[in-house]
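Priority: medium. Attachment 1 of 2:
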């Protein structure tokens, strides 16, 4: 049992996105689901995020007209709005120049050059707001590099405001590759001063926000035990393994959960027909509906391979695309929804041109398509180069669309490889090598089981559908840190 009574725990959760308000990836899903699960465990978890005013389409209310912060040598003024989503209290930091933009982090090609200023404001404003409304949290929970200045600012606040003396900070690394690296020129703006040294925010003469956040936070975690192990290694630490090593006694992996109220084929509002473990026949209608929507002809003798992904190197496309080419060439249908790097987008345009009746290709971001693909496909491909946790493999297990994953990070922790001696406990297909050959061979292994061992395939589908990754369990792990 925690030292502190759970019902009294207070958490200030700083994030750059939140599903249901505005989301680009898994961080948004977590920022919605974790505070919600914490609330259910009677933690007063409140979220602070930017007011992405061009993108947020929900009722908001201004609660503070003017909040002035001065993290370094520049004063920045902002306003604070609030909104609620499923009883989660969300504070929105409004700044016309920094946050009134059509996208969250980039202009579609390049990152916004002033990202460091934008997210410096987020961290500074979150702590200023907490003081202003007298919300003294047990823990400031910072997410990714966008909130990685908050541990430093909190350490300073503790020295001048005794109310915050006991507040601790936790930095969650959702993706160790993105570190918020910028020119040392911004030191003054951020007020780094004594924190600009080789163990903290300085990295080869540049600013590295994530690195400093690891150093200054009381605890650091990442989103799966598997990825935590990788971050501690030279090859898997994205250049920061020493920072993780130095934090080893206060660094751990906590697996993300799955939001089953959103991802459930029994209730999903986007799919053609609801289905469940006891009524799998309807899953076929979801496949038919998806294929028909794109004017293509269904072929029940072959599995449909699905993908829902940001199109980036992280997700393994560099070696998966040649494998996808081979699969399409031999008549296997693939359904992809994705957006991201221009080169990868063009590769899919080209594949669509080459195989118009075999590839379902939706360029862009679409919640509806993501759900339709999860339900409509038979096998779900995630060949990631690295994967801190990954959520889609959890969704696809729930939807009985067997994940084909590379054995890294959270994928390794959540997918049980098909085992001929124990297929009832298997939940997908796992491979090691980051190569086109390995992707192709693994997909073909899934195709073979689908075509030639249908009873076993169905057993694995059922065992995958029965697996659960509850947010409640993850939230309990976070509570241990908040109340340590
Ligand atoms: P990451 O955060 O690295 O992108 P995750 O697997 O943790 O990977 O989470 C990705 C989330 O974003 C999932 O909810 C997935 O369904 C969603 N997603 C990714 N790309 C798209 C897209 N093009 N359209 C709709 N949803 C998407
Ligand atoms: C990141 C990771 C992904 C993880 C998500 C949520 O975007 O790439 O693996 O699931 O954050 O933690």
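Attachment 2 of 2:
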């Amino acid at each position: 049992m925690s030292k502190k009574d759970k019902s009294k725990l207070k958490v200030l959760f700083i994030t750059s996105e939140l599903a249901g308000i505005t989301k680009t990836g898994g961080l948004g899903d977590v920022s919605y689901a974790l505070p919600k699960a914490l609330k259910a465990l009677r933690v007063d978890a409140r979220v602070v995020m930017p007011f992405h005013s061009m993108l947020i389409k929900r009722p908001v209310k201004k609660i503070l007209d003017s909040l002035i912060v001065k993290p370094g040598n520049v004063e920045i003024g902002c306003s604070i709005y609030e909104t609620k989503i499923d009883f989660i209290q969300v504070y929105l930091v409004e700044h016309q120049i920094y946050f009134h933009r059509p996208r969250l982090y980039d202009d579609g090609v390049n990152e916004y050059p002033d990202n460091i200023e934008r997210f410096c404001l987020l961290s500074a404003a979150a702590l200023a707001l907490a003081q202003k409304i007298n919300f003294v949290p047990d823990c400031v929970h910072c997410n990714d590099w966008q909130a990685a200045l908050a541990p430093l600012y909190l350490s300073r606040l503790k020295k001048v405001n005794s109310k915050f003396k006991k507040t601790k900070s936790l930095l969650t690394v959702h993706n160790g590759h993105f570190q918020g690296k910028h020119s040392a020129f911004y030191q003054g703006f951020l007020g780094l001063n004594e924190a600009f040294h080789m163990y903290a925010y300085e990295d080869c003469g540049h600013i590295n926000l994530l690195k400093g956040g690891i150093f200054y936070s009381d605890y650091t975690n990442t989103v799966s035990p598997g990825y935590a192990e990788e971050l501690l290694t030279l090859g898997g630490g994205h250049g920061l393994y020493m920072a993780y090593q130095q934090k080893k006694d206060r660094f751990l992996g906590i697996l993300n959960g799955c939001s089953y109220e959103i991802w459930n084929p029994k209730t999903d509002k986007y799919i053609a027909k609801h289905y469940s473990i006891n009524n799998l026949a309807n899953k076929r209608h979801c496949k038919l509906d998806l294929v028909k929507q794109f004017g293509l002809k269904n072929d029940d003798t072959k599995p449909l391979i699905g993908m829902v992904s940001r199109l980036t190197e992280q997700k393994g496309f560099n070696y998966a695309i040649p494998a996808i080419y081979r699969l399409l060439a031999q008549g296997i249908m693939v359904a992809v929804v994705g957006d991201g790097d221009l080169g990868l987008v063009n590769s899919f345009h080209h594949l669509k041109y080459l195989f118009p009746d075999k590839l379902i290709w939706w360029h862009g971001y679409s919640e509806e398509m993501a759900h339709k693909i999860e339900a409509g496909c038979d096998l779900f491909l995630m060949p990631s180069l690295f994967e801190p946790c990954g959520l889609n493999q959890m969704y696809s297990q729930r939807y009985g669309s067997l994940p084909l994953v590379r054995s890294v990070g959270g994928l390794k922790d959540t997918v049980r490889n098909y085992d001929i001696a124990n297929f009832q406990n298997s939940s997908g297909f796992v491979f090691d090598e980051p190569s086109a050959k390995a992707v192709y061979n693994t997909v073909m292994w899934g195709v073979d089981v689908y075509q030639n061992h249908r009873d076993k395939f169905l057993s694995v589908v059922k065992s995958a559908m029965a697996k659960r990754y509850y947010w409640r369990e993850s939230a309990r792990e976070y509570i241990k840190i908040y109340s340590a």
